[in-house]
Design brief:
Elements lengths: L14 E2 L7 H8 L7 E8 L2 E8 L6 H8 L4 E3 L2 H6 L12 H4 L3 E4 L8 E4 L5 E5 L10 E4 L9
Parallel strand pairs: 3-5, 5-8
Antiparallel strand pairs: 1-7, 2-3, 2-4, 6-7
Length: 153
């Protein structure tokens, strides 16, 4: 089982699903929670190195906003090779995994207004529920508006 890093030093409660899920839509449906409360964590490759982008499950990333905020020229979704090098695969990216916690964390400000979010615990059939403010305890956290406006491409 992947090891999780809780910034407050307590253990997460791990819940189990009856089947594997990969997408936020699948996870929210399986957990019977709003898609908004399903954390979407994406690994980005940028000209400043890898970053994790955390946003509500019903939102899309705004790579232009990320590039402006970080003052960089390049930002895109990490390749399969990059995911393998970080020992994750689609559906298992959890910002609290010990091997990912040290990466800079981009946090959509919308998350911090939610009472809870849920995400996988590094496995396709296990998950955690937590206060999204925990993400801001990362020493490399950057909070901003990183989601696309409705109707924008």
């Amino acid at each position: 089982m992947p090891e999780l890093q809780n910034p407050l030093g307590m253990d997460f409660i791990i819940f189990e699903l009856t089947s594997n899920v990969v997408s936020c839509e699948e996870a929210a449906t399986a957990k019977n929670i709003p898609l908004l409360n399903e954390l979407k964590s994406l690994i980005l490759t940028t000209s400043a190195g890898p970053h994790i982008l955390n946003l509500p499950g019903d939102k899309r990333a705004d790579l232009h906003a990320i590039k402006r905020r970080l003052a960089i020229k390049e930002a895109h979704l990490a390749s399969g090779e990059m995911l393998r090098s970080l020992n994750v695969r689609p559906g298992t990216v959890c910002p609290f995994l010990k091997n990912l916690w040290s990466l800079p964390q981009l946090i959509s400000q919308e998350l911090l207004h939610l009472s809870y979010v849920s995400t996988n615990s590094g496995e396709l059939n296990k998950y955690i529920i937590f206060d999204p403010m925990l993400l801001s305890f990362n020493e490399n956290a950057i909070v901003g508006n990183f989601t696309k406006l409705e109707g924008s491409s």
